[in-house]
Amino acid sequence: MAAGGAEELRQQQQQQRRLGRLSALSVYRRAAGAERLERRRRGTPLPAGGRRAKARPRRGAARGGGGHELAAPPPPPSAAVPGRVERAEAAPGSAEKKPPGGPAPSPGAPRVRAPGGSTEGKPPGGPAASSVGGGVPGLLRRLGLLEDSRRRAAELFRWLVAPVEPGEFAGRHWERAPLLVRRGDPGYYAGLFSTADFDAILRSGEVQFGTHLDVTSYAEGVRETHNPVGRALPAVVWDFYQNGCSLRLLNPQAFSATVWHLLSILQEYFGSMAGANTYLTPPGTQGFAPHYDDIEAFVLQLEGKKHWRVYSPRTDTEVLPQFSSANLTQAELGKPVLEVVLEAGDLLYFPRGFIHQGDCLPDAHSLHITVSSYQRNSWGDLLEKLLPAALQMALEEDVEYRQGLPMGYLGYMGVANSDAADTRRTAFVEKLQRLMKKLVDYAPIDAAVDQRAKSFLHDCLPPVLTQSEKQLSVYGFPAQWQDGSPRNVDILITKDTEVRLLRHGIIRLCNEEAGVMLYYTTENSRVYHKEEPKYLEIDPEYTDSIEFLLSSYPNHVTVDTLPCGTLDDKISLATLLFEKGILTTKKPLVQV
């Protein structure tokens, strides 16, 4: 650069410092004004554009000075050891859990950790645990070669927690204790998501503050959300970032095909919605207050590094909570059970109820994605559906539930009478206990599970099809306008056509008051609950054919073997399911 140009630049910089830089954050704070600050002090709701986080209102401020929270100094980062695994104490009151997604491998199976976190002794023909060779997109392509979607899901989860075996993870960590995996492989998650992807998403023009993106900060014990109204323009977003704000992209699967693909497979393993958020944090800052969540969290460090502290639930009531906590203060925390600096390629898992906080070191930014599952997926959540249905059936079928309460019971029951020695109280309690015990006989357990499954299918992401699957499905059917008229329109399924389900977990039969419903996921949106649940009302005579398709998966069956009444019924059912993307054929229906 010429000397004159350098001098001009220096003068401009000095002038900018004198005038004071009007950053997006400072403009935002000026626009909100004194009223907003006074509202924040009183804890009253903020006006639009100045709201705090909905789920975690601030409960107090930590003591300290300067621009950021006074955190305990991070431990000196140890040398990255490939495949190194660290564990923390189990939560109080936790019990051994079965693995989600299917039976665990036999206990005591040998495991040899190889460099880069790969695992030897994996099932023959299975994809390598490492994502090398095309990164995560390459791994997903290799998984697509497996015929059974359940195997794809199991192998992807194996890769997620490698070199820890899924069975060991289920027995020692799932819903019990945090797990840290240091891989020493910065490229382990290559191609999953990056800051370049984040920038491209911003430039797509589809990102809205609040709906898709949160701008957050946590300094001096105060957690704030700084979302303006409207579109998240790159210049504004990156200005917030330069001024120390964290950027949380909500539901990145709606924007990133790779994240969508990853989650669409994992959801079948968990049997529960798999979601994600990405977090981009500037060096030397923290975006969120300490808190615990109501989900099982898998933190995948994509870029840079981040200092994490994880704390056990403080009481038994916080073990596996139904709901996330409010923001916590530093004074409310004890000693962390795990303190670590995550580097690219590392994994941190912690169960719901474990308090956590992460801050960036001064020398590096951090980009991580949190994959989550098992929100409201407990025995208690099932019982919330089951018990009202059981009581309704008992009222309809058993006169004892419809008999009147004893006259005068208000005089000897209730808290005021709880210490009274009265035989009428004893008889009342025994009768109630017996009625509650009898409810089990009326509990429609399978129907309640079907309703849970129906909700899960509504939560699900639509499946991501491989190229070969597209060619064999309605999504690759070559119908088009050509030479003045539609061509290749007729879907010609015959009795000899070989078909199978696209995925094992994409349908669910539910017997409801309105009839037999077949719920499915192939027409779901990548945006959570953007669409209503998708279903077909089918004739009861078709239920055996649906169950036959499920039990036959992943094998193909000829349409003629479907257990329907007539050949026309068989072809009609197969054609309907094909048109909805539920069935694929063994060979393309139309040769192009």
Automatic annotation (TrEMBL):
Q: Looking at the UniProt record for this protein, which Gene Ontology cellular component terms does it annotate, in alphabetical order?
A: nucleolus
| Alphabetical keyword list | Chromatin regulator, Dioxygenase, Iron, Metal-binding, Nucleus, Oxidoreductase, Repressor, Transcription, Transcription regulation
**Which regions are flagged for Low complexity bias?**
1-31
Q: Where is the composition biased (Basic residues)?
A: 51-61
Per its UniProt record, what PROSITE patterns does this chain match? JMJC
Cofactor(s) needed: Fe(2+)
UniProt keyword annotation of Transcription regulation present? yes
**What is the recorded name of this protein?**
Bifunctional lysine-specific demethylase and histidyl-hydroxylase
* Native source organism of the sequence: Aythya fuligula (Tufted duck)
The record's free-text note on cofactor binding: Binds 1 Fe(2+) ion per subunit.
Q: Provide the catalytic activity annotation.
A: N(6),N(6)-dimethyl-L-lysyl(36)-[histone H3] + 2 2-oxoglutarate + 2 O2 = L-lysyl(36)-[histone H3] + 2 formaldehyde + 2 succinate + 2 CO2; N(6)-methyl-L-lysyl-[protein] + 2-oxoglutarate + O2 = L-lysyl-[protein] + formaldehyde + succinate + CO2; L-histidyl-[protein] + 2-oxoglutarate + O2 = (3S)-3-hydroxy-L-histidyl-[protein] + succinate + CO2
- Please list the residue ranges that the record marks as compositionally biased, kind Basic and acidic residues: 84-99
Keyword match Nucleus: yes
Q: What is its EC number?
A: 1.14.11.-
